[in-house]
Amino acid sequence: MDASDTGMKAAAMPENPLINDPDAGIERLLEIMRRLRDPETGCPWDVEQDFATIAPYTIEEAYEVADAIEREAWDELKGELGDLLFQSVFHAQLAQEAGHFTFQDVVRTMSDKMVSRHPHVFGDQSNAKFADQQTADWEAIKAAERAGKQQKGALDGVAPNLPALLRALKLQKRAARVGFDWPDASDVLAKITEEAAELVEARDNLDADAMEDEFGDLLFVMVNLGRHLGVEPETALRRTNAKFTRRFEAVEAELTNRGKTPQTSTLEEMDALWDLAKAREKSAP
After folding, report:
1. Mean per-residue pLDDT, 138-158
2. CATH fold for domain 3-117
3. Name one Pfam family in it (predicted).
4. What residue spans define the domains of the chain?
5. End-to-end CA distance of the chain
């Protein structure tokens, strides 16, 4: 592109003061998004995107927010929340272009929802309630909203594309609301023993399809156990992933100090170093 082309582009799209105003708030971001999506003067990559291509980035950004919180990386969290907000702005811009709704419609819908779901804050109900009662009230309001959307089944509205652990948890919570639930965690533990035995049987029979099915059943019951114990499955697994990473990296570091690698070490050596890393973690203040 030569200088004349640059001048033509600038003439076609005059600069909006909002874009260079650091104090313009959300209106600045909305204008930036609109400009990025302009068919003639926008960014070619942004112009090519649609809901389906952007959705994976939205999911990724949500996980990066969770990761920053888990690491208590507060400076990073500011940026990650911004990235997630930009995803909402992107989807809203796509929707506006298609004539579905605008970003302001999104804001209005969420604001109306929060007001209607918190009558003890914004209405005439008393807010002198314990958290459990407020949670029960919240679920009752959401149930009424689903009824208004003509969702008949207890599981209606649980998005199929949620991460599997999260969807399992939501399905179980919905079923529990209508009484389909074990009374306490001991019953779930008994079910885990049963499912583990069925998985072993499938393995012994070398039945690949049955193994996958039984493994899924075992995971599903483990999610249920977490629900009964008040443990969020995704959070627990992320914590274990982080713990495994720390300890395995400690094993690798110690092997490097000894002039070795995992490939040149025995399982017994690595197990011993793993136990050492574990002990050091537990004894750390």
Report:
1. 71
2. Helix Hairpins (1.10.287)
3. MazG
4. 3-117, 236-283
5. 61
